[in-house]
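2024-03-11 09:14:02 INFO queue: dequeued item Major facilitator superfamily (MFS) profile domain-containing protein, len=455
2024-03-11 09:14:02 INFO validating residues
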Amino acid sequence: MRRLTELFGKCRYMQYLAVTSGSWGSPSIPKLTSSDSPIGVTLSSEEVSWVASSPLLGFALGALTSSIPLKIIGPKWSLLSASLPIAGCWLGIAFSKSAVVLIVLRFLSGVCDGIIVTVGPLYIGEVADKDIRGKLITFFPIFSGLGNLIVLAVGPFVEYKTLNFICATVPILFATIFVFLPDSPYFLLRSGRGAESKRSLRRLLSNDVDDTTIDERLKEIEATIRSEGTHKFNVIHMFSKKHFRFAIFISLNTRLILAFGGMTVLKSYLQTIIGGTASSISPEISSLIFAIAQQPPVILTAFLVDRVGRKILLTISTLGCALMLGLEGIYFYLQRVAEIDLSAVSWLPTACLVIYSFMQPIGIGAMPSIIVGEIFADEIKSAAAGIPTTFSGSCHFLLAIFFLPISEAWGMHVMFWVFSVFCFYGAIFAMFVLPETKGKSFLEIQETLSKSRCC
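2024-03-11 09:14:37 INFO prediction written
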């Protein structure tokens, strides 16, 4: 037993345990549009649109206001305070009997999701060592993809209420585990709680680390906090320094690429898209394959991100997605506009989407969270982190609302080509603008940003 404890200590298990309760995807809603809707009311297409998009609107609001709890109670308790209301929302959704109640509850769950997605990477960035920081932040997309897979695999075979109960157990489990884990040593030291910060570091570091090493880490944290000064925050100050502006610019661009890379919209309307392609593979099987294909790359990314770096992974991901989305658009154009018989390649739409679902998590899906967890200076972190997440949530909401109307008016191929162009832009951004943060401390990252020619 002693040897087992020493092994866990050496692998810094507290840092891994602190981030293994990731965010899970929301269930799909096809059952609500059927004639035997589980809530007793068949939803119209407009109601479906709002049920699907209301969490994204709430997500934007939650991200925008996340700086308030983050500054007052810190990252750990911000995450805890947002987790249990999500469980309540899922339970409410299970027993709701109207579209209005569904929309409101999903909006509220989106608010909590916005807080979690904004604060989570910041917490991970502050509790993780720099050599495993990127790996740990990728736990968010890993668990998000796993949740999506479970919902797609289990959802069709269980009752509506059962599916919602399963979703409700996840935030409860998260809170049960997370309440016992250490708080951010940065937040504790920033709050004048030096002794608690030292105890937190001792729990996060391996058991064989001596007091000298812990004191050195505390001095590094103090230097990081002190280097940003004691300015009273305001919006003007947040844009007053070059490295502040560049950090915001980078985070906004990674979120732009994530949103207009199309994943959120494609997951929401996947069965509708596949159903309109005359694919030889059924929409249900296609969506399950789509979810399964996302699991290996997110796990692979966790092992590669701190070895090969952020730039390479984002470049590979964006180029691969741009190609697959472009081909998907060509298929829709030839089928619906040119009216060419494509029965010989009816498998192509599903194949392109599956390859896309493999390529997207490698960089596009993972990098925004990693960047937010690393790029912001301590002085503006609590306020600035919500900006890219709010921007992302707003983009996702608008895409969810307008995807089908635009596709019906201009053609599905247009939306796929738009997504492809943004992915190609992401490759250019990754190669020529994005700084490499692999293995760098927070101070070193800020120094890199200060030396950049951008902003």
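2024-03-11 09:14:37 INFO annotate: DSSP finds 24 helices and no strands in the chain.
2024-03-11 09:14:38 INFO item closed
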